[in-house]
Every structure is written in C-alpha cells, then in structure tokens.
Write a structure and sequence with these properties.
Blueprint (H helix, E strand, L loop, with lengths): L3 H12 L2 H30 L12 E3 L6 E3 L7 E6 L6 H12 L1 H6 L2 E7 L3 H11 L16 E3 L4 H5 L14 E6 L5 E7 L7 H13 L5 E2 L10 E3 L16 E5 L2 E4 L5
Parallel strand pairs: 3-4, 4-5
Antiparallel strand pairs: 1-2, 3-6, 6-7, 8-9, 9-11, 10-11
Length: about 260
C-alpha cells in the first residue's frame, strides 16, 4: 500500500503537462544548486585546520619586499619564524616590526630567518617599510628592515596557516607566530589578539630553548633562560632513587633530574 505523501506526489506528476514539467525541473534546479554550493563551502570550512606542531610547514610562493619568495624553501636549513600581523601603518604592528628590526643581529647569531605576512598589498608594504626605517623607536637609531614583508591580499597564506580568525575579523590576520626548524617542521605556535603586541625577547628565548632541546635528550623548565640548567629527560643512573649522583647532574626529586649548564 502506497503512503499518502507518495500517492499525492504521483498524482501531481500525472497531472502535469510537458510545459509545466519543464518549469518544475528548472525550479528544482534553481533551489538545489545554491544549496549544494553552500553545503560545499560549509564542508570546506569545517575541514580547514591549522598546521600543528610536529607537522611540515606548508609551502607557498608570494611577492614580498625582498622579491618573490617561496617559504620555507628559500631559507634552506635554517630556523624560520613566520610572523603575521593585522595591518600595515597601525601602531601595534609598527612597534612589533621595529623591535624585530632592532633584534635582527640577535636572530642572525642564532641562524634564524624571519618572514612577515599580512593581507596588505605589496605597494603598501613597501611604503610602510620605508616609513618604519625613518622612525627612532625607544631612543634607538632608525633601523633597516632586512626581512621580507609578504603580500597576501588573496588570503591564501593566511588561511593556509590559520591566521584568519573569523570571529575577530575575516580579512585581517591575528598576530600569529610559527617557529620552524631547519627540517621545515613546525616546533612552536602561538596566537595573540590584534590589540596585544608580542614580546620579541620571548621569541628569542623560545628559539634558544628549542635549539637546546633539539638533541631530544633535554627539556627546559619553567621560565628557562639561556645559561640556565636543563632538565635531563633520561636520568644518568639506572636506579633513579640512588644516592650516587654523577658529576654535572643533580636532582630535586627522583622524577626531576637536571644537568648543570656548561661552565657553571
């Protein structure tokens, strides 16, 4: 026995003439196609994800103030920092780039290359860079900006690295940082809101810590700074409760072993 809705549907179809049938097909198509498009977009948005620690850094090619750039490939076997910001010619972003420019020599000593990205156009990057290089910030001499400012007006890079947080703004980057090792593997990630400037010294500290623990034998304790003792992941003794502590090591508990900093 046929259900009532199905029987009604058959009755409607049987009474439609050819002309009306064509109109019905067109109407159905007009309704279904936009719904299908919206569903596909929603599905793409749901599947979007930020690249995570331990994964390969996504590669892209873009224009920059230093010419065309392919990131991270162009920086070879060096440590890299991809640094996003919301907008050129804004005070917080300007202060951040001036700090990075001031610390360029420190980053160079650590073999770190910096690339800065925002959704501004290249011409605006060029104008902003020129303006920044004329500013004396914190009583320091004006600094030359050697790292590239990358154009991302299409939002391709920003979306690739999860720097567009739509609840905040759907066309401007948040303050994102990706620290990437010489093998192009992401080692650290953090995001700041648009209204809070980042600490450049913390960038240096984090890279220094990552370089120290890259041997997979050490870890850094809370508030570690270069020159401080390191946690030893595998204790230098078989019995962790032993009273015999080898030279160069000490313990705070059987589960907390440290190696003294060299020269200390």
């Amino acid at each position: 026995m046929e259900s009532v809705p199905y029987a009604l549907f058959k009755l409607i179809l049987n009474n439609l003439n050819a002309c009306n049938m064509k109109k019905l097909v067109v109407l159905i198509a007009m309704v279904l196609i936009p719904i299908s498009t919206l569903w596909s977009q929603e599905k793409a948005d749901r599947n979007f994800r930020i690249p995570l620690i331990g994964e390969k850094a996504p590669s892209f090619t873009a224009e920059s103030t230093n010419g065309p750039i392919t990131f991270p490939d162009d920086f070879g076997g060096k440590w890299k920092i991809l640094f996003s910001h919301p907008q050129d010619f804004t005070p917080v972003c300007s202060s951040e780039l001036l700090e990075l420019a001031y610390l360029q020599k420190e980053f160079d000593k650590m073999d770190v290359k910096i690339a800065v990205v925002s959704t501004d156009e290249l011409d605006r990057h060029v104008q902003w860079k020129k303006a920044l290089e004329e500013i004396t910030y914190k009583g320091r001499p004006a600094q030359k900006i050697k790292f590239p400012l990358i154009e991302d007006k299409s939002l391709v890079v920003s979306k690739m690295y999860g720097m567009i947080h739509e609840a905040t703004n759907n066309t401007k980057d948040v303050r994102g940082v990706f620290i990437i090792d010489p093998d192009d593997v992401i080692q650290a990630i953090y995001f700041y809101p648009m209204s809070v400037g980042r600490n450049s010294e913390e960038l240096l500290r984090t890279v220094a810590a990552l370089q120290k623990v890259s041997d997979k034998k050490h870890a850094t304790p809370s508030d570690w700074k270069p020159g401080n003792d390191l946690i030893i992941i595998t204790p230098p003794v078989t019995d962790q409760r032993t009273e015999n502590v080898p030279d160069g090591f000490y313990r705070l508990a059987w589960f907390m072993w440290f190696e003294k900093a060299k020269g200390m």
